[in-house]
Amino acid sequence: MYYYTRVMSQLFLETPVSKMEKTDFKTLSTMDDFWKFTEGPLLDGLYWEMWYNNRTMAENKSFIYYENLLLGVPRIRQLKVRNGSCSIPEDLKDEIKDCYDVYSVANEDTAPFGLRNGTAWTYTNEKDLNGSSHWGLIATYSGAGYYQDLSRTREVTAVQIASLKKNLWLDRGTRAAFIDFSVYNANINLFCVVRLLVEFPATGGLVTSWQFQPVKLIHYISTFDFFLAACEMAFCLFVLYYMVEEILEIHIHKLHYFRSLWNCLDILIIVLSVVAIGINIYRTSTVDMLLKKLLEDQNSFPNFEPLAYWQIQFNNIAAVTVFFVWIKLFKFVNFNRTMSQLSTTMSRCVKDVIGFAIMFFIIFLAYAQLAYLVFGTQIDDFSTFQDCVFTQFRIILGDFNFTEVEEANRILGPIYFTTFVFFMFFILLNMFLAIINDTYSEVKSDMAHQKAEMELSDLIRKGYNKAMIKLKLKKTTVDDISESLRQGGGKLNFDELRQDLKGKGHTDAEIEAIFTKYDQDGDQELTEHEHQQMRDDLEKEREDLDLDRSSLPRPLSSRSFPRSLDDSEEDEDEDSGHSSRRRGSSSSGVSYEEFQVLMRRVDRMEHSIGSIVSKIDAVIVKLEAMERAKLKRRDVLGRLLDGVTEDERLGRDNEIHREQMERLVREELERWESDDTASQMSHRLGTPLGLNGQPRSRSSRPSSSQSDGIDGGGGNGGNNIHM
Question: EF-hand domain spans which residues (predicted)?
């Protein structure tokens, strides 16, 4: 579409009015220039009746650039204001007889003038013209006026333009002249609705503006168009579904529904989608009627302006809808810790930013008012208050021409520029950044002390692993452990098992729970007996899994012997299956499937308790080590004090006293080093020393097969707890 707009604009906007002059449409300045443009570049651009070798085209139609068909005929329309619409001072009434005010609907002239025949000389209202208002650079103009439909041939159109020029169709009351036409390019299936506007301000001279609107008004021609039609139908169904869903939620939650910003955003997206669908239906139905009318009378003016307007509005609504849909992604990316920090920072600093914005805009608008009053009559960028606001934003971004300000006012210009940059850029802008940085630091500090929550990446990874397990494309935890045992041979130590299972995606907590359960002697190595016990349990677990998959209506993901990351999803599946079976069962007892679910949950609880016991054991070991160190320090200090007291009592020589002290200190240091070495060896072997110096065995995991349980001792782990 961009290239279509560019070639059309270059043809009508950048072509000089004559070979001797460089004036083009953009630089028109007088009414004489306007007539030169209509008699030169306009006619040359609209009517392509000759090939580049001066041969006449076979068809009696105008194809601009030999590709773009001119639809119907062009139209020239003007709006006027009546004489006497403004007040003349009493002192100048003798010198000034006529007065034409700026354009407004109240000042619009509707009386016939000139030849007083035909539509060019008599007024036609907006309804009869099927027109609409237009927002120009100086004023907003109605869709009515005096108009002349041109011809399909260059010669007749040249005669019509010459007649209008000769009879002074443009006069002092003219405030706007419109040139409208439409073309169609079949190669790309696009219309281009063109409007060239020349405004004649009350000050004299003229101002030009233009609109080139490439729009696709004919749909569903190619295969891809029908694919888009299917997508549009799917979109309509989705909008209908979510509309019903939101209505039901509003009915259930009443006004509480609107307390959530995301719910309000959902309502806005649905409303915009419904409006876009309505505009699309109206546009499609209307263009068919307009083309049918055009084919019946090819010498009429096809008014595609309303359709182009609605197409532009459709594009705008679609763009805003897509924007809000992208914004809604923040609701889902909050699973990510970084994005959560961003959204939390923005929500926390809202009040501070609003308070800062009030102060900012007070100073900003004060400078805008100053610039408008001082430079408004000299510089185009400050000609209106609105332009002053945008120009000051450009100054903040560094896009500004200081020379124009200095030339407009050599005193106030530099003062205005210097103080504005100082206060707005160096002070207020840095205050805004300080607010954001301070809030971000607080949020980051708070989140650092919070427990890590499930992130989106974790959720996706867990869902992927669960799907792979159900499709039997990935091994379960039971299979991974069995394979590690087969590779270990007769014995398997903790480091080998950890390295193997870590490579298969298991966590340290899972691996430690497995080893804690079966390493009953605490030597950090599985013996043949412990090895065989683990094999038997794993075979039993595999049989349970096969039974679950075959018996349950909903297949469960693989159940690992220790609690793994997959267990959380399995809980949900088991809960749903369990509840459905309980609802469907008519017996009063517990079914085998329910019993298996409960057994697995009890087993997982035992694993968790075993992990807790081992951690408590480690804490107790550290406390015992601290107590031993404290007792050693007391013993050493007591011996040293006893030695000093004994020397003083016996009156020994200082040299002998010093040697005695050195010997005692050396003996204590050697004893400390030997104790530390033994403690480190014990820690590496997993057999910490107790208070009595005897090795402490690692607490075994309490299981359902142990009769005394946790409170009854459960092995050494239970004894440690009661210590």
Answer: 506-541
Contacts of 139 (CB under 8 A, 6+ apart): 102, 103, 104, 175, 176, 199
Extents of the domains making up the chain: 2-215, 223-328, 344-448, 456-584, 608-722
Is 523 among the annotated ligand-binding positions? yes
The angle subtended at Cα 637 by Cα 636 and Cα 643, nearest 5°, is 90
Q: What's this model's pTM, rounded to 2 decimal places?
A: 0.61
Task: Give the orientation angle of helix 385-396 with respect to helix 412-420, to 10 degrees.
Answer: 60
Write out pLDDT tens, residues 74-104.
999 999 999 988 888 888 888 888 899 999 9
How many CB atoms are located within 10 Å of the residue 675 CB? 16
pLDDT tens readout for residues 596-631: 778 888 888 888 888 888 888 888 888 888 887 788
CATH classification (class only), 456-584: mainly alpha
For the purposes of burial, counting CB atoms within 10 Å of the CB of 620, is it exposed (0-12), middle (13-18) or buried (19 or more)? middle
CATH number of 344-448: 1.10.287
What is the distance between the alpha carbons of residues 661 and 35, in angstroms, rounded to a whole number? Answer: 120
For residue 467, the SS3 value is helix
Which single residue is written with the structure tokens 């946790």? 710
Quote the CA–CA distance of 148 and 167 in Å, as a whole number. 13
Beta-bridge partner residues of 176 = 79, 199
User: Does the annotation list 297 as a binding residue?
Assistant: no
617 is annotated as contributing to ligand binding: no
324-328, 402-406, 531-535: range with lowest mean pLDDT? 531-535
Residue 701 neighbours by CB under 8 Å, 6+ apart: 513, 516, 517, 606, 607, 609, 610, 613, 717
